Amino acid sequence: QVQLVESGGGLVQPGGSLRLSCAASGSIFNIYAMGWYRQAPGKQRELVAAITSGSSTNYADSVKGRFTISRDNAKNTVYLQMNSLKPEDTAVYYCNAQIATDYYWGQGTQVTVSS
Questions:
Q1: Which of 17, 42, 46, 109 is the most exposed place for a label (fewest CB within 10 A)?
Q2: SS percent in the chain: helix, strand, coil, step 5
Q3: Could you tell me if residue 63 is left (phi over 0), alpha (psi between -120 and 50 degrees) or otherwise beta?
Q4: What is the pLDDT of residue 110?
Q5: Do the beta carbons of residue 45 and residue 94 sit within 8 Å?
Q6: Which band of pLDDT confidence, cut at 50, 70 and 90, is reported for residue 45?
Q7: Distance CA 76, CA 34 (A)
Q8: C-alpha span between 67 and 80 (Å, rounded)
Q9: Mean pLDDT of 17-24
Q10: Angle at alpha carbon of residue 28, lines to 27 and 33, rounded to 5°
């Protein structure tokens, strides 16, 4: 049994910043990768950023230069620093972890960018 708990979402003005965190707990033996996805109304869930156990990173083109993903392996926690936020970043953000051959998801946290 694995649980992912997210925090840090909320309402922010355009140009502002938020920092999301996601802590994994439970029967964890080997986390291959962790990442953040988002889903806006009427759109499919998309990858925002991902990081491997070796700290290789991958970002969606729309967030490159603005978002930074990082992880603390000892704490099984992944972070997403979001800067220069735009209204189009508004979405529900989901934490994901790949453990062995299975994927696990958090409940999602709402990020709203509006003036």
A1: 42
A2: 5, 60, 35
A3: alpha
A4: 97
A5: yes
A6: very high
A7: 9
A8: 7
A9: 96
A10: 145
67: tokens are 């978002």
Measure the CA–CA gap between 115 and 14, rounded to whole angstroms. 6
By CB neighbour count within 10 A (0-12 exposed, 13-18 middle, 19+ buried), where does 55 fall?
exposed
- Distance between CA atoms of residues 69 and 11, nearest Å: 20
- Chain-centroid distance of CA 101 in Å reads 20
Burial class of residue 107 in the structure, from the number of CB atoms within 10 Å of its CB (0-12 exposed, 13-18 middle, 19+ buried): exposed
Give me the pLDDT at residue 54, please: 82
pLDDT at residue 55 tops 90: no
Q: What token pair was written down for 10?
A: 């909320």
